[in-house]
Amino acid sequence: MNVLFVGYYYYLLYKGTLYEFIKNILKDTLFAYLSTLLLSIVLVILLVESKSFGLFLLLAIAMLLSHGFRQLFLMYNAVSEKANTDQRTGLYSHSYFEEKLDEYMKQAREQNVPLSLVMIDLDDFKKYNDAFGHPQGDRLLGFFGNLVKTECQPKDLFAARYGGEEFSIIMPGFTKAQAKTFVDTFRKKVNNTPFEGVEVFPHGCVSFSAGILEVNKETYDKSQLIDWADRALYAAKSKGKNTVFIYGEESRLPQSLANDINELEQQIKIFLSKDVYTFKHSKRVFSYAVDMAEVLNLNEEDRRLLVLGALIHDIGKLEIPRDILNKKSKLTHEEWEIVKKHVLWGKEIVSVSDKFKDLVPLVELHHERYDGKGYPHGYKGEEIPRLARMLCIIDSFDAMTTERPYQETRSFADALQEIRRCAGSQFDPELAELFIRCMEGKVAIDFTEAAAAQEPYEQDS
Prior knowledge:
Blueprint: H1 2-13, H2 18-50, H3 52-84, H4 94-111, E1 115-122, H5 125-132, H6 134-152, E2 158-163, E3 166-172, H7 176-191, E4 208-215, H8 222-238, E5 244-246, H9 257-268, H10 276-295, H11 300-312, H12 322-325, H13 333-340, H14 342-351, H15 360-365, H16 386-401, H17 412-421, H18 429-454
Parallel strand pairs: 4-5
Antiparallel strand pairs: 1-3, 1-4, 2-3
Helix pairs in contact: 2-3, 5-6, 9-11, 10-11, 10-16, 11-16, 16-17, 17-18
């Protein structure tokens, strides 16, 4: 009865399915339950056979077992705490940070609360190490770690040493603006805290640069989250250090967008020898993406992501056999399954370059559907990043309006009508409506200009 009542209580607290709950109960508590049952049987036997002495004997055994389990529990806790703590700074370790970040992201989605991630890097730490040696450098890390811990603990923030002189803070309940206020206040406090040897630093004090990213429903992967926060961090360092930047609000990246476009165009030119259609398709999708970046009023970083992602979104098709790419008849089921893998192959190709790995979500997820029936993961709604949802619409529109070996070509009007029909199922309804309005306006302008150009030759036509 105890087991049943306690199990029912935890089921009410547990938010998973009944199957998962029962599986966890069987896995985690069955051994303890059977052990208690066996001890009860032993108690009955001893009471029948030895009366009072049997009861004494069982109590002695139970106390010894209890003491033994307590020692094992304390030892396990000590080992776990040591494994989860960075010994030099007293903060949490890198591996534990990665584990907890998943939990905080899940919690933020479920409870619909803000969550921000901060990546911090001590400025000119190598210069300090070179001047005073590694032992003193380790003391500086410990000193800074203690400052971080003191500042974060009262607000229940999760602080970890990410690696080297880099630190991370998970901030549940903080918007990016609130996170920036907190980090800036802390940065000034660090600047004003004396430490031996700070005269070697360019700022004459201990300082750090920080990048902030606010998690949203479109953030589907923690590595993407960390990478974007890192981008903001290094944008802060490139601006003279001892400053804080929010991802998406920093000024233009070091290399211009035009240079990035030229570099990626050289990569997709290989399609000219294998599949001319994909090369031309990529260029058209890129052109639509430039227009939609204006319509969506994207910031510079998101504009870069959409435009470059559109240009290289089909790079994975390089791995598809030529006879499938150029097949005139309808693809078989097996051939279609091969074609669908191009998003994963594209992810692998783009991930090789640190410079362009932030394009991975667009390359990998541009065939996901708003209703969850797309591929490769079956994400739906806002689980799919917004720019990938936009790229899905652009990609589909161009596919419908241009000649393909195994698909009927549609007029612009028919294609827009199809997008309107599939809004809410295949496409994000809000983005679909924006795209339709943009394209209808563009077609109207193009038609007017074409009519004006042909006016002198109206009788000939």
